[in-house]
Amino acid sequence: MTHIDSQGRLRMVDVSEKEPTWREARAEAFVTLSGETLQRIYSGDIPKGNVLEAARLAGIMAAKRTWELIPLCHQLQLTGVEVDFFPDVSKAEIRIGSRVKTNDRTGVEMEALVAVTNAALTVYDMCKAIDREMTIRDVRLTFKAGGRSGTFERS
Question: Which residues are part of the catalytic machinery?
Fold first, then answer.
């Protein structure tokens, strides 16, 4: 229980004695939507504008502010944030992937997860007027490297 002190109170983990090391995390989320909505996104026919570029920017911005959104996260110096979109027409869904990197004292898993979540919410927001049936699902860490606990890769 690294976030609870000896008296049961919440605390932020003290990482001041740790040396900065290279760290990376990747996450994904899925947005299921109608085939028509998916086609309209990729043809640029959404009234609010370019859905994927707005969602990409939203994901990047959210990753940079994770420490303000998740109470016990550290503020990190991110060295890279990528957000990409992978449509699957046969399933009428978009897989959103993020990759976040730092050279710091703690990992960037939460930043990667926040990036895909906020990107997915932005897709929803920009398309909700034409598709209220959209679903955001399966937000998950797919990879992390660096730090004391080593590498994790989802099978």
Answer: 125
